[in-house]
From TrEMBL:
Similarity-based family: Belongs to the binding-protein-dependent transport system permease family.
Location of the protein in the cell: Cell membrane
Name by which UniProt lists this protein: ABC transporter permease subunit
Organism: Marinomonas arenicola
Bilayer topology annotation: Multi-pass membrane protein
PANTHER family: GLYCINE BETAINE/PROLINE BETAINE TRANSPORT SYSTEM PERMEASE PROTEIN PROW, GLYCINE BETAINE_PROLINE BETAINE TRANSPORT SYSTEM PERMEASE PROTEIN PROW
Entry keywords, A to Z: Cell membrane, Membrane, Transmembrane, Transmembrane helix, Transport
Residue stretches spanning the membrane: 69-89, 156-179, 200-219, 302-319, 325-348, 360-381, 434-462, 482-501
Length: 513
């Protein structure tokens, strides 16, 4: 009785599965129902071959709404067909033949001049004959190279055909596996596109009809049309846009000079204060302070490493430049933290601000530093404050992102419990959310400090002095030893700061009560 009930349940499930597959595929439901059942019932990789996908890979992928399969199949088949086209009707070695013809023509011209010189008894007749022979030998070499390239046509046809067959077999082997995965996603989420789409089939066919002839023509024609190789851009558009941007930068710099000078002055005050502390203070005092911080915050091992790193900086003459670099770093990191942490909290609290800030932060992180040095120089000139501003742009995103992430990851139950006990929004932020998010915030500060330090070389391009200047000079004059020593100095500065900052929020054990 139990066996009959079990068999009945199994047959009912199989029937429901078959109906579901029929709704999903719309066409060839019986075939796909059997293949999906075979794939799902096996714990190992199941051998399932789809003849339609093997023969019409891109078209099958487009019709079945599997665009990843469509593009991979299209790329592979285009590569194979291009090799076949090059071998069947591509003029391999045509460029070498043209070169040989040009060299042969020049050789004949030189020989004619040599004959005239011999008849006239000129002194350069023998030199002209030697030049003619050299040109002829070069022409013969080009002809031989063209013949060798032409012999490779048969190999291209063979390899292209073999690769095309391999691609078709591979398409047939993976098609049902890929389609079964799509079916499973459709069962979990009915918004997944299913069925046989004639519109997608026509769209895929149209794209192939455009791509295949262009690819074959581009790689098999001796001299393709110029517009296919290089986009026919109008230089006047570029010149007009460049001139307009120059005028815009100049106008903003002139009208906003007071604002930009105020920012520069504020940064200079902060930087001058740090340089007085780090550069002008006697080196034994600074060394003692750094070693005490390393020992108390990060432990004796970091203190020993700090001694070795500071000795390297001192004995190689990098002490003042290292302290100037750390002053630049301190000013940039301070501004990053002062601006970035509150802004990260705002992003976590306000979705509108977060949606606006996210692409801006992406731009700040992905845009090459050399690009945003241009507006920095246009508005603020050169020197240390502009270098700090460039470093600020590069180093701020980590602290903003990780601060926002830490605030968002505070458990809602804790927030609700604090509000239930009468906690105000201000107390909630200061006494609950920020302490719980402190690990993430400090990790963002640490990353910001290291990213700011990595900008010292680029900032030296606009007059920010320090260790970056030595690296820049080494690059300009190919001074390998100088560049390596200065790079190690930057590395040691980064490692000292990283270890001390990590020690600030490393959990320390307490003795048991």
């Amino acid at each position: 009785m139990n066996n009959s009930n079990s068999n009945g349940d199994t047959s009912l499930m199989q029937k429901e599965q078959s109906e579901s597959v029929h709704r999903f595929t719309e066409r060839s439901g019986d075939y796909y129902s059997a293949e999906f059942e075979k794939i799902q019932s096996s714990t190992r990789l199941t051998l399932s071959f789809n003849i339609a996908a093997a023969l019409f890979g891109p078209f099958w992928g487009a019709a079945r709404n599997i665009w990843g399969f469509f593009w991979l199949s299209t790329i592979a088949m285009l590569f194979a067909l291009v090799q076949l086209g090059r071998g069947l009707w591509g003029e391999l070695g045509a460029d070498k033949l043209a070169q040989a013809a040009r060299l042969g023509s020049k050789s004949q011209e030189m020989a004619a001049k040599a004959q005239v010189a011999l008849e006239a008894g000129a002194a350069n007749a023998q030199a002209l004959l030697r030049n003619s022979d050299n040109l002829q030998r070069a022409a013969d070499k080009a002809t031989a190279a063209a013949n060798e390239a032409a012999k490779g046509a048969e190999q291209l046809v063979i390899w292209g055909a073999v690769f095309l067959i391999v691609v078709m077999i591979f398409q047939g082997l993976i098609a049902n596996l890929v389609y079964e995965k799509k079916y499973c996603r459709w069962r979990a989420d009915y918004s997944e596109k299913n069925g046989f789409s004639m519109m997608n089939l026509l769209l895929g066919s149209a794209m192939l009809a455009i791509m295949l002839p262009l690819m074959l023509y581009r790689f098999t024609a001796t001299k393709p049309v110029a517009w296919l190789i290089e986009f026919p851009a109008d230089k006047t558009v570029f010149n007009s846009a460049s001139s307009w941007l120059d005028s815009a930068f100049d106008a903003v710099a002139i009208h906003g000079s007071g604002f930009f000078d105020g920012i520069t002055s504020g940064i200079r005050v902060l930087l001058d204060g740090l340089e007085v502390v780090l550069v002008d203070t006697p080196w034994p005092v600074i060394t003692l302070v750094i070693l005490f911080m390393a020992w108390r915050l990060a432990g004796p091992r970091v203190a020993i490493f700090t001694v070795a790193a500071l000795a390297y900086l001192a004995f190689l003459g990098y002490w003042e430049k290292s302290m100037a670099t750390i002053a630049l770093l301190g000013a940039a990191a301070t501004l990053c933290v002062v601006v970035g942490v509150p802004f990260g909290i705002l992003c976590a609290k306000n979705r509108t601000v977060d949606s606006i800030a996210r692409p801006v932060l992406d731009f700040m992180q992905t845009m090459p530093a050399f690009v945003y040095l241009i507006p920095i120089i246009a508005f603020f000139g050169t020197g240390k404050p502009p270098g700090i501003l460039a470093t600020l742009i590069f180093g701020m995103p980590p602290v903003v992102r990780l601060t926002a992430l830490g605030i968002k990851q505070v458990p809602p139950s804790i927030v609700e419990g604090a509000l239930a006990f009468g906690c105000s929004r201000r107390k909630l932020l200061l006494d609950v959310e920020i302490p719980l998010a402190m690990t993430s915030i400090l990790a963002g500060i640490n990353q910001t400090i290291l990213m700011c330090l990595s900008m010292v070389v680029i900032a030296s391009l606009i007059g920010a002095e320090g260790l970056g200047t030595d690296v820049l000079m080494a690059l300009q004059f190919a001074a390998k030893g100088q560049g390596l020593l200065a790079g190690l100095a930057i590395l040691f500065c980064a490692m000292i700061i990283d270890r001390i900052v990590q020690g600030c929020f490393k959990p320390t054990g307490r003795p048991a009560d």
